[in-house]
Specification:
heterodimer, A: alpha+beta, Phosphoribosyl-aminoimidazole Synthetase, Chain A, domain 2, eight-stranded mixed beta sheet, 30 strands, globular, B: about 230 residues, alpha/beta, Rossmann fold, nine-stranded mixed beta sheet, two-stranded antiparallel ribbon, about 20% helix
Chain lengths: ~750, ~230
């Protein structure tokens, strides 16, 4: 076997004319030229590997960066913010010395290719981001979007994704407390698998991804590095070596949750003993990312000996080692005097740990292989100074026609019988049906702090046993609304998540987002993206909830067909005492049902228009953020002061969907009266934002009404919790048995 | 003086801290035991908690059963030390032959997490004396390998000796033989079950019921009165 000489820095300088496969690695010509310009010579193969992955859309946010800046520029003043955008995850102060970190990420493309592993490693990645901040992960959530529920491929993708999320998350001991499942044919070849995680720590335990202090050691620990998750690196490898090694490597990583569980415990133990100066997890772009980010965020440089990386496959080339996305690995910077203790802790947990380098007092990242220097770069140019694109964007030509196709003009039910049939059709439709077949595959109970979990409006976790301090998290994002108007759609996603946190009694505090869109190279998609970001940033500013971090997933499209623009927004809230939380389920017969907010004829993008007419057109519901804020304040005060016993936000499906859910969860029916000024159809199906339905004990009615009156929030008495059916006076009666059968039967019938 | 109850942490144990909390809420003192410990720190009883010890590789509980801590545990359990195995702990106890039978993958092949109704069949074991026989309780169930199976002779013996400690009610969630959710050894000091009593000890948390607390008060009373 003949070998070409090792492509060292020296060799690269001496052989300027060697052609490198930059195009195959995904770099554009001008990007490659920029690398040459930065280095003042051609890159080595290893350097090219690093630049190509770190400058990819996924790692560099090159198309989205110019828009995302608004999250910082428009960030509202918020004393709770401890760590903002740019770190592994944002951190907020929740009081009593506790800090909470949370983030949502996507693992969309891998989950389509290999649903189980794609989804599993998505959970693994977000959990490592949370640990890397110094926090113990305490819960996960999973916002999911799939193609049509009855499409054969959905039956391939969904069960695999759900089993993967469960298989990984359950094995880590993290309760799964929320998320959503939405079906729409626009996600047919592009399912969205977003994963969120919450972590809790004390303020003083916050850790950052930076390598400081010359002489400090860089320790790689966790799983051995293998050939999984390598995309283009194999091309480089085949340039360098003869064809005498395994050629086809999986591009989707394979997860081992057991290894990750050990990694969590081992890392937390090292944190407890204050052994860690800086830390970074290995996710996308593996070691390339971890070394360049640690080095560029710190004060010095870094020297790494790649030969010391423990391998699963000894034939890996240095380029492949740098690009490998093998799961369950972390990189810590540790003072020399603490290295022994760090390694001891790793050994206790049977975690492999190796010193692979050290922090230097220079400003270069240098990587060695077989004695030769194969990387010598300014780490900032790899990690932070990638290309930035001002992609052209333009309002699509079809947007006007779409908005003109008014859903308010669709034929409405003409008789009570028809109204009843449409209610049944709605609550039994895949999007509105119970998702318990899915969520029952996730552990909700582990850690013993779950106060609320799906199908509640938001998940809630107790973080202090003594005081009852807790946090709530809700995720929402309606792609249909965003398609009709991306600016408003993004604001509606925030408004809904904000409202969902407030209905449980928690105060909304901060935001994370996962922005799922089509190809940025399509000006129409780029316009959707720009509008959505602008809408979200404006709304966050107005509601006083800063974006603490998040993720962008582009290229969710097959051919010309992009997914609906789908900004998924997560809102984190805090509650002083979880004993004051308000659940969705009706609690007691005789309690009075109040509808809070204004109901207008708003059917654009509604569940009704989809289920009954298979229609998408018109305008989404109007957003009134001041109203949302007022509604939230009322809901929080009413929870705290015991004025309401259950509360449910109104969103897709409208009032009837919310009442049916509360009734089925509580096992108690409701009698509803259509209020003056509304017709039964609008009352039941409208999706006007800024609304919730609450159950008020009779003894609290006066106090509750006075509060709403004094604050100027419309509160309309619409009925009472009663009996074993949902009865809309003068229209129809549906027994809970019938409703339960149709609401809970749909998903198992399609997927089990 | 209160009772000291050990909780073993294996690599991959998940409910160790929850179990310690349940012991504390019952009024006993939890003692953390590590899988590499060669002695049991003179505890009065031991709980093997839920999780995926060693990733459930090979077979649930099959590797943990050979951990150093299991040697003194098996020996002392045979001599009467009260031991409770919850979920993965139950699987470990069957692998260690302290309890009969074994667990297969759920008959529907999915992980299932639900609030499960059970009937207490035997209220005379070390871990169930605070219940009454026939009492119906709700305890969270969450597992993928929860289908209890045993040969006919074993099942007949368990039934005739009253060693079926808990039975699933309303729904058999995993295809277990005779709806068995938990069993006891002959002496009644070793009990194993798939549902998680440590997740049902506080009114606000989880399902909001405290039906699991009597496990821990049962053993506390037995130990303190001994």
């Amino acid at each position: 076997m003949s070998r070409t000489p090792l492509d060292t820095v020296e060799h690269a300088a001496a052989t300027p004319d060697v052609e490198l496969p930059w195009a195959e690695l995904g770099l554009k010509k001008d990007e490659y030229e920029r690398v040459v310009e930065i280095l003042g010579r051609r890159p080595t193969g290893a350097e090219l590997a690093m630049y190509s992955v770190m400058w990819s859309e996924h790692c560099s946010y090159k198309s989205s960066k110019v828009h995302l800046r608004q999250f910082g520029e428009k960030a509202p003043e918020n004393d709770a913010m401890l760590v903002g955008i740019g770190e592994n995850a944002g951190v907020v102060d929740v009081g009593q010395g506790y800090a909470v970190t949370f983030k949502v990420e996507s693992h969309n493309h891998p989950s389509y290719v290999e649903p189980y592993q794609g989804a599993a490693t998505g959970v693994g990645g977000i959990v490592r981001d949370i640990i890397a901040m110094g926090a113990r992960p305490v819960a996960v959530v999973d916002p999911l979007r799939f193609g049509a529920a009855d499409h054969p491929d959905t039956k391939r993708v969904l069960p695999g994704v759900v089993a993967g999320i469960g298989g990984y998350g359950n094995c880590l001991g993290l309760p799964n407390i929320g998320g959503e499942v939405v079906f729409d044919s626009c996600y047919q070849g592009n399912p969205l698998v977003n994963a969120g995680c919450i972590g809790v720590m004390r303020h003083e335990d916050i850790h950052l991804a930076k390598a400081s202090g010359a002489g400090n050691k860089v320790i790689l620990y966790g799983a051995r590095t293998g050939g999984d998750g390598i995309g283009g690196a194999s091309i480089l490898a085949s340039e360098t070596f003869d064809d005498a090694k395994p050629s086809k490597r999986p591009a989707v990583q394979v997860g081992d949750p057991f290894q990750e569980k050990l990694l969590i415990e081992c890392t937390l133990e090292a944190f407890r003993e204050k052994l860690v100066v800086g830390i970074q997890d290995l996710g996308a772009a593996g070691l390339s990312c971890a070394t360049s980010e640690l080095a560029s965020n710190g004060s010095g440089g870094m020297r790494v000996t790649l030969d010391d990386v423990p391998l699963r496959d000894s034939t890996l080339s240095p380029e492949e080692i740098l690009m490998s996305e093998s799961q369950e690995r972390m990189c810590a910077v540790v003072e020399p005097g603490k290295v022994d203790r760090f390694l001891e802790i790793c050994e206790k947990w049977d975690v492999i740990a190796t010193v692979i380098g050290e922090v230097t007092d220079g400003d270069r990242l240098e990587i060695y292989w077989h004695g030769g220097k194969i990387v010598d770069v300014d780490p900032r140019t790899v990690a932070h100074e990638g290309p930035v694109y001002e992609r052209p964007y333009a309002r699509p030509s079809w947007q006007d026609a779409l908005q003109a196709d008014d859903a308010n003009k669709l034929p409405r039910p003409a008789t009570s019988e028809e109204l009843k049939d449409q209610v049944l059709k709605l609550v039994g439709s895949p999007n509105q049906a119970s998702k318990s077949w899915i969520t029952s595959q996730y552990d909700h109970f582990v850690q013993g702090n779950t106060v609320l979990a799906q199908p509640e409006d938001s998940g809630m976790i107790r973080i202090d046993e003594e005081t009852g301090l807790g946090v709530a998290l809700a995720t929402d994002g309606n792609g249909r609304y965003a398609k009709l108007d991306p600016y408003t759609g993004a604001q509606l996603a925030l408004a809904e998540a904000y409202r969902n946190v407030a209905t449980t009694g928690a105060k909304p505090l901060a935001v994370s987002d996962c922005l799922n869109f089509g190809s940025p190279e399509d000006p129409a998609v780029m316009w959707q993206f720009a509008e959505a970001v602008r809408g979200l940033a404006d709304a966050c500013q107005q509601l006083g909830t800063p974006v603490t971090g998040g993720n962008v997933s582009l290229y969710n499209q097959t051919g010309e067909a992009a997914i609906h623009p789908t900004p998924v927004v997560a809102v984190l809230g805090v509650i002083d005492d979880v004993a004051r939380r308000t659940p969705v389920a009706f609690q007691e017969e005789g309690q009075l049902l109040y509808l809070l907010g204004d109901t207008r004829e708003e059917f654009g993008g509604s569940a009704w228009s989809q289920v009954v007419h298979d229609h998408l057109g018109g305008l989404p519901p109007k957003v009134d953020l001041e109203r949302e804020r007022l509604l939230a304040e009322i809901l929080i005060a009413a929870s705290r002061d015991g004025m309401i016993d259950s509360a449910h936000d109104l969103s897709d499906g409208g009032l009837i969907q919310a009442v049916v859910e509360s009734a089925l969860l509580g096992g108690k029916g409701a009698r509803l009266i259509v209020p003056d000024g509304l017709d039964a159809f609008t009352f039941l199906f409208s999706e006007s934002a800024g609304r919730a339905v609450v159950a008020v004990p009779r003894s609290e009615e006066v106090r509750f009404n006075d509060m709403c009156g004094a604050r100027g929030l419309p509160a309309t008495r619409i009925g009472v919790v009663d009996g074993d059916s949902v009865d809309v006076q003068g229209e129809f009666t549906l027994s809970l048995t019938e409703l339960r059968e149709i609401h809970e039967g749909t998903i198992p019938a399609l997927l089990a | 003086m209160t009772a000291r109850i050990g909780v073993v942490t294996f690599p991959g144990s998940l409910d160790d801290r929850d179990t310690q909390r349940a012991i504390r809420l019952a009024g006993a003192e939890p003692v953390a035991l590590w899988h590499k410990d060669k002695d049991l720190k003179q505890v009065d009883a031991v709980v093997l908690c839920g999780g995926f010890s060693y990733g459930d590789y090979l077979r649930a509980g099959a590797i943990a059963r050979f951990s150093p801590v299991m040697e003194p545990l098996i020996e002392q359990a045979k001599a009467g030390l009260p031991v409770l195995g919850i979920c993965n702990g139950f699987q470990i106890l069957t692998e260690a032959h302290l309890l009969p039978g074994t667990m297969l993958r759920n008959n529907h092949l999915h992980f299932i997490c639900r609030d499960q109704k059970l009937r207490v069949e035997n209220a005379e074991t070390a871990w169930t004396s605070d219940y009454t026989a026939g009492q119906e309780i709700h305890i969270p169930l969450k597992n993928i390998d929860g289908q209890y199976v045993a040969d006919q002779h074993t099942l007949d013996t368990l039934e005739s000796e009253g060693r079926v400690a808990f039975r699933y009610l309303d729904v058999n969630p995993n295809g277990s033989n005779n709806d068995i959710a938990g069993v006891a050894n002959e002496a009644g000091n070793v009990v194993g079950l798939m549902p998680h009593p440590e997740h049902a000890v506080e009114p606000l948390i989880g399902t909001g019921r405290t039906d699991g607390l009597p496990f821990f008060t049962s053993i506390l009373k037995k130990l303190v009165n001994a």
